[in-house]
Amino acid sequence: MMTNHSYPPDKCTFELLSAYLDGEVTAQQREEVQDLLANDPEIQSLYRRLLYLRDEFQNLPTPQPEYSPQELSSTVFAKVDQENRRRKTYVWGGGAIAAVILATLGGVLNGNRTPLLQMANRDSQLNSDENLVIALNEPVIALPANTEESLMIPLDQSLMDIIENK
Known about the structure:
Blueprint: H1 11-22, H2 27-39, H3 41-59, H4 69-109, H5 115-118, H6 147-151, H7 159-165
């Protein structure tokens, strides 16, 4: 192999030939490559292989994308929106749970009891004249035998007055 250039004939020669094919050499380097191509059969063979590879790469078919750019972007943004909605749901749900817990703790630990919580303790406050009546076999109110009479309830009298008058 004949070498009258400043580069060693190995990797540097390959790099120089590749840069020459890409048009990335200086004027001095271009003259050097042209001199090598004119005088060295090994460099000529390497140059032809590089030309063949470049042509083959340029002729490779370009794969078609599965989705158009519009479809891809709309799908991505739909997933982002879905994720944002899910995060908002977690935030609102967590806030609601925290509010219920705080309200429960505030009601239990507070000295002022609500009427709902006082209902269980009300038996000590009952008057002695109040009695609980449970009618198992007989109704508390006498029911009339005539069905027409039972359906007629005057609106100007209270139910207790009607019962007392019968």
